């Protein structure tokens, strides 16, 4: 059958394979094919493949030696992969356990199976999980060359946003000062730092900040990352003296940032005054929002202008749809340039 494949010259094949593997995009159900000096690498999600890759549809052979959960169950179960964990969203406990058993008996490299036991809740945006297989809820996730340790029961993390995080990371330049207002375990901060940015990551969840510091060590960017457990509103105060470096002095970052990430889509508007205070004379703001499909970008743009103007000239550089969030609702991002 025809499946989506990344097409690449054979001499660049291994580098491309590693990049796709780091993004967890290689479809292990199919063989990688070589023909006339060209490599065809099957991928799991065509929408998650960025424009830097040449995406085609091609007939490739299935892997005959690999047993999939669907082969055992005789139906195709729904689950997400995060490192060596499989994440289910099943209301029926018996069905959930049946799927978990099949996943472990398959050839998937999975050690832990978790089933969602609640919605995301509370100020720290965590959820409850039922442990169906494995020792605990801690996993190690790899994404575009970065490695993230995290505990799903203690922190918020979405593997579905890997492509969006990569889109923003590609905009970062060496020497920038980047500020993530809701940093979590560092999925924006860590790749920014690896590109040479000086980064500050803030989160109100102490577990998330502990993992952010651990992930800075894992990815060799400790010297470029400052992790702060705080309400971000306390870190921009024009009446206090700014620290001479991001490591010392009072934690005041008024007029500091060249780039700000605001990935709190249900309530980012409540923190825009803080974002504008954090912004330097020229700053790119990545503002995430969830709005009705009839006008997904208008409310965010109007709110940003209301808060930032006339102190800043406001230019919307990109209006980007990240994904569908719910019926008739879209998760979107506005990339906005502020110039004082």
From TrEMBL:
<dbReference type="Pfam" id="PF18093">
    <property type="entry name" value="Trm5_N"/>
</dbReference>
<dbReference type="GO" id="GO:0008175">
    <property type="term" value="F:tRNA methyltransferase activity"/>
</dbReference>
<keyword id="KW-0489">Methyltransferase</keyword>
<dbReference type="GO" id="GO:0002939">
    <property type="term" value="P:tRNA N1-guanine methylation"/>
</dbReference>
<dbReference type="GO" id="GO:0005737">
    <property type="term" value="C:cytoplasm"/>
</dbReference>
<keyword id="KW-0949">S-adenosyl-L-methionine</keyword>
<dbReference type="InterPro" id="IPR029063">
    <property type="entry name" value="SAM-dependent_MTases_sf"/>
</dbReference>
<protein>
    <submittedName>
        <fullName>SAM-dependent methyltransferase</fullName>
    </submittedName>
</protein>
<dbReference type="Pfam" id="PF02475">
    <property type="entry name" value="TRM5-TYW2_MTfase"/>
</dbReference>
<dbReference type="Pfam" id="PF25133">
    <property type="entry name" value="TYW2_N_2"/>
</dbReference>
<keyword id="KW-0819">tRNA processing</keyword>
<dbReference type="InterPro" id="IPR056743">
    <property type="entry name" value="TRM5-TYW2-like_MTfase"/>
</dbReference>
<dbReference type="InterPro" id="IPR030382">
    <property type="entry name" value="MeTrfase_TRM5/TYW2"/>
</dbReference>
<dbReference type="InterPro" id="IPR056744">
    <property type="entry name" value="TRM5/TYW2-like_N"/>
</dbReference>
<feature type="domain" description="SAM-dependent methyltransferase TRM5/TYW2-type">
    <location>
        <begin position="79"/>
        <end position="340"/>
    </location>
</feature>
<keyword id="KW-0963">Cytoplasm</keyword>
<keyword id="KW-0808">Transferase</keyword>
<dbReference type="InterPro" id="IPR040601">
    <property type="entry name" value="Trm5a/b_N"/>
</dbReference>
């Amino acid at each position: 059958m025809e499946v989506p494949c990344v097409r690449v010259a054979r001499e660049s094949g291994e580098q491309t394979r590693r990049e796709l593997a780091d993004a967890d995009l290689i479809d292990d159900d199919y063989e990688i094919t070589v023909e006339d000096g060209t490599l065809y690498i099957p991928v799991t999600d065509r929408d998650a493949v960025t424009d830097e890759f040449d995406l085609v549809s091609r007939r490739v052979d299935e892997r005959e030696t690999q047993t999939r959960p669907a082969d055992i169950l005789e139906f195709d179960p729904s689950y997400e992969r995060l490192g060596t964990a499989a994440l289910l969203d099943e209301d029926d406990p018996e069905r959930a356990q049946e799927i978990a058993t099949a996943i472990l008996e398959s050839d998937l490299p999975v050690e832990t199976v978790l089933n969602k036991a609640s919605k995301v809740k509370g100020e720290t945006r965590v959820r409850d999980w039922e442990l169906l297989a494995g020792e605990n809820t801690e996993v190690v996730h790899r994404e575009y060359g970065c490695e993230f340790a995290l505990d799903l029961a203690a922190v918020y993390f979405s593997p579905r946003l890997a492509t969006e995080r990569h889109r923003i990371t590609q905009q970062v330049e060496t020497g920038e000062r980047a500020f993530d207002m809701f940093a979590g375990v560092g999925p924006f901060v860590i790749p920014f730092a690896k590109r040479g940015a000086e980064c500050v990551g803030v989160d109100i969840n102490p577990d998330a900040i502990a993992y952010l510091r651990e992930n800075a060590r894992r990815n060799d960017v400790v010297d470029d990352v400052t992790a702060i457990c705080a309400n971000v509103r306390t870190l921009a105060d024009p009446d206090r003296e700014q620290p001479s470096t991001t490591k010392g002095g009072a934690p005041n970052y008024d007029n500091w940032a060249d780039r700000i990430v605001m990935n709190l889509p249900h309530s980012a508007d409540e923190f825009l005054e803080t974002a504008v205070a954090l912004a330097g004379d020229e700053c790119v703001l990545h503002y995430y929002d969830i709005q009705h499909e009839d006008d997904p970008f208008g409310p965010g743009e109007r709110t940003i202008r209301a808060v930032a103007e006339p102190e800043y000239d406001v230019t919307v550089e990109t209006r980007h749809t990240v994904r569908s969030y719910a019926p008739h609702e879209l998760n979107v991002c506005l990339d906005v340039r502020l110039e004082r």
